[in-house]
Amino acid sequence: MIKRCYYEILGVERNAPAEEIKKNYRKMAMQYHPDRNPGDKEAEDKFKEAAEAYEVLCDEEKKAVYDRYGHEGLSGIGFKGFSGFEDIFSSFGDIFENIFGFGGGRQGRAGMRPGADLRYDLTISLEEVALGKTTDITVEKLVICQPCQGQGTAAGTYPTTCSRCRGQGQVTQASGFFSISAACPQCQGRGSVILDPCPSCRGTGKTAAAKTLQVKIPPGVETGTRMRLRGEGEAGDFGAPSGDLYVFITVARHEFFERDGDDIYCRIPISFVQAALGAKIEARTIQGTEKIKIPGGTQSGHTFRLRGLGLPRLGKSGRGDQIIETQVMVPTKLNKKQEKLLQEFAKASGGE
């Protein structure tokens, strides 16, 4: 399936300010919201399409990757869009709250809060940037309590319907000509109360645990690249969606190479004789070694470009280049024979 341009979907220019992008998305969210278009598959598709476009264009890092590499670049950093409506509402709850007044515009209870998002910082080497990497990470987080399966109740018991709101999760109070709805203070908006809590989680439905996850890092990532693992954050309250886990990449400083985008730079020392007469030498690259020819008369600071031996382009084919800068090493200790030969060279060159 060919994806449409995100800017075209939201009807904005590439240089549109963030406020205009948000304004256009709010307009489309209102127009195609599933509660306003029940059973309309086309409206549902446009609602999801607009949400995915906004998810990218409102995020500076994702927007930068998309502007440079398109949809393929986003796939390279692990972006897959939304899995469903609840995922959209949990991500953009503030927008839907402003549109509909509460709760994302869908029928639900205030007590069903989604889980918290988590952050994990991962440092990788430049060699791993060149090849990509699959690694395991362990995250400490709140997960669904297994004994009660997230219900918060002791074995053999069940939540009891709240007597105050009668299971609605909200209470309504009259104030003059207006009626104001708010979360039920007795059940905190859940619509039920737990009389006999689970001893493992004490009625919260969640317990702390360590979970090991496999993370696939695509070749070509940079420091600051953020990967989103949907649903791998902390568990939500009583069956609400889990949060997301964000893996932030840091590329460690290399002892030999320096990076500039997809290109890498290095300095290679050569002897005075190699510089003067020319030579063939082996140069270190991010992928191994490569033979290069040093022409006679090479000066310090001269650069050689090895095309295609740099880093992979994130989400695209091809690689950058490696740029080698020569550094002519002047001998600091000479024996008598070497001194004599250099003096003869100086005389032959017109020197003293």
Structure report:
The protein has 352 residues and is of the alpha+beta class. It has three domains: 1-108, Helix Hairpins (Orthogonal Bundle), CATH 1.10.287; 113-149 and 203-253, Urease metallochaperone UreE, N-terminal domain (HSP40/DNAj peptide-binding domain); 258-348, Sandwich (HSP40/DNAj peptide-binding domain), CATH 2.60.260. Helices cover 27% and strands 27% of the residues. It has nine helices and 15 strands. The chain has helices at 6-10, 18-32, 41-57, 60-76, 85-91, 93-100, 126-131, 272-277, 336-348, and strands spanning 118-124, 133-144, 160-161, 170-175, 178-183, 192-193, 206-217, 226-229, 245-251, 258-260, 263-271, 279-285, 288-294, 303-306, 322-329. The protein has a four-stranded mixed beta sheet with strand order 10-11-15-14. A three-stranded mixed beta sheet has the order 1-9-8. Helix 2 runs antiparallel to helix 3 (41-57). It starts with 5 loop residues before the first helix and ends with a helix. Mean pLDDT is 85; it is low at 97-110.
- Estimate percent helicity: 25-40%
Mean pLDDT: 85
Outline the biggest β-sheet.
4 strands, mixed
State the helix count: 9
Radius of gyration: 31 Å
Strand order of the largest sheet: 10-11-15-14
Fraction of residues in β-strands = 25-35%
Q: State the total count of DSSP E strands.
A: 15
**Fourth-level CATH superfamily of the largest domain:** DnaJ domain
Distance from first to last alpha carbon: 77 Å
- CATH-level-2 architecture of the largest domain: Orthogonal Bundle
CATH topology (level 3) name of the largest domain: Helix Hairpins
Order of helices and strands: HHHHHHEHEEEEEEEEEEHEEEEH
CATH class of the largest domain: Mainly Alpha
Anisotropy-based shape: elongated
Structural class: alpha+beta
| Domains (count) | 3
Stretches where pLDDT is under 50 for at least 5 consecutive residues are 97-110
